[in-house]
Amino acid sequence: MTAKVLIFGPFADAAGARTLEVCLPETDRVTASVVMAQVAEQHPALRALLRHAMLAVNCSKADDTTVVRPGDELAIIGLVSGG
């Protein structure tokens, strides 16, 4: 399965694009942690940034066990702090 992942800000700057194509394993149970691992493997320029990021699936924060299905909207969101 190939997934399109939206990226923003410093992630887009590092990748030189606003979307990534990521090849995912052909299995019935691809999780958010698998997506993030594949992004890191297939787009090495993002590895350091991914340590401080999360995956959103269909506009909702995903934990490591969230299952990703074909057609889901995926986005990498950098962690934000402030006050």
What features would you describe in this structure?
The chain has 83 residues and is α+β, with helices and mostly antiparallel strands. Helix content is 27%, strand content 31%. The protein has helices at residues 9-15, 32-42, 47-50, and strands at residues 2-6, 19-23, 30-31, 53-57, 60-61, 67-68, 74-78. The strands form two sheets. A five-stranded mixed beta sheet has the order 2-1-7-4-5, with helices on one face. It has a two-stranded antiparallel sheet with strand order 3-6. Strand 4 (53-57) and strand 5 (60-61) form a beta hairpin. The radius of gyration is 12 Å and the shape is globular. The N and C termini lie far apart (40 Å). The model has no long low-confidence stretch (mean pLDDT 94).
